[in-house]
Hints:
The protein has 204 residues and is of the alpha/beta class. 31% of the residues lie in helices and 28% in strands.
Amino acid sequence: MEIDRKNHWDAVYETKQPNEVSWTQENPKTSLDFIRETKLSKSAKIIDIGGGDSKLVDYLLAEGYENITVLDISAKALERAKKRLGKNAEKVSWIISDITKFKPETTYDIWHDRAAFHFLTTKNQVETYVEITEKWVTGFLIIGTFSEKGPTKCSGLEIKQYSELELENQFSKRFEKLKCIKEDHTTPFETTQNFTFCVFEKIK
Length: 204
């Protein structure tokens, strides 16, 4: 299954342009708002989980954030992001890894994940992810998933929907919920996907 997932995402990023995939955002406004609202300094360590070729990194660099890491299972996705950023790509740390196999080498002040967590559909995958965040996130956890009113599949794969309460329950052992919103994302093909988007703070 592991190899399949990597091959799946490499194939997606090799064959489809941003306007051909549902998750593309020209301006990742909610993610940026939540990151700004943490009020952390521009030197905060930020990791974008499943960042792919998302433009969040472009906006963070433009705002002066200096310590950004982008993780994705697909090398092809990260290659595309690096190409787009050009020289600026050197300012970013890039990690190719399945999130459930990720072995961090440092802690993170902000862990951001828009639409990666909901691809983890087994109890073991979810527990592994939660354990990684509990150990390696020192500040804030920002997560966006398909809501209970959102799609049940994405890119041909089953996903796990989350209500606000369900998302909160997954992380409540070590994180306190600060804020959750429901958000409609309009895809490049003019369809609507409903997200649950939450920010949590690590319980000291």
